[in-house]
Amino acid sequence: MLGKTHAVVGVTTGLLIMQPVSATELVLGTAASLIGAVISDIDVGSSGSHRDAGKMIALMVSAVVAVGVIDHIWHIGIYSRMIQHTNIVRIWLSVQAFLTICVFGMRSRHRTFMHSFLAMALLSGCLWLFLPSTVGYFAVGFLSHLMLDFFNKKGEQLFYPAKKFCGIRLLSSSGLVNDVLFGVGFLAAVRVVWIFIRKIYLH
Asked: Where are the transmembrane segments (predicted)?
């Protein structure tokens, strides 16, 4: 599936499964689900599609910036929550570890390390070090990506470093199924976000 499809499916799945109960959790959960859903495809640069890898990175950076802007404008307590149970050294170390794993992933072959349970566990561990409340959303988003790509014709190396590629291998990355999933996923994501906004503010 294409990145935009992974994004909307990941956000919808993450919010529906994790059920945010506050504005802070809704914003952080949406961003974490989105990043989890698209981060696997930073390895597409290794297969020659550098522009697609750049799009994935830009989308993740945009999500982080959006969280900061929302927190600054509406003062919903994201920054204070981030530093509540941690310190600057722990945040720095976890961010450095997260980026190191991503750099390794970018240099890996497509649908290998970054499409594995190992990558999900390592990246989730980095998030847990300074923002534990986002780990569930991130992991669900990541798993939604693995689930969709499981049906890709090329398969994926789920149990990296084991060399076997797993998958049912029915679909291509783009095409009618991708378009349908994106359309349904986009409408579902908008609907789910609106439902939780109403639930949080009108409860």
From this structure: 26-44, 56-76, 88-106, 118-140, 180-197
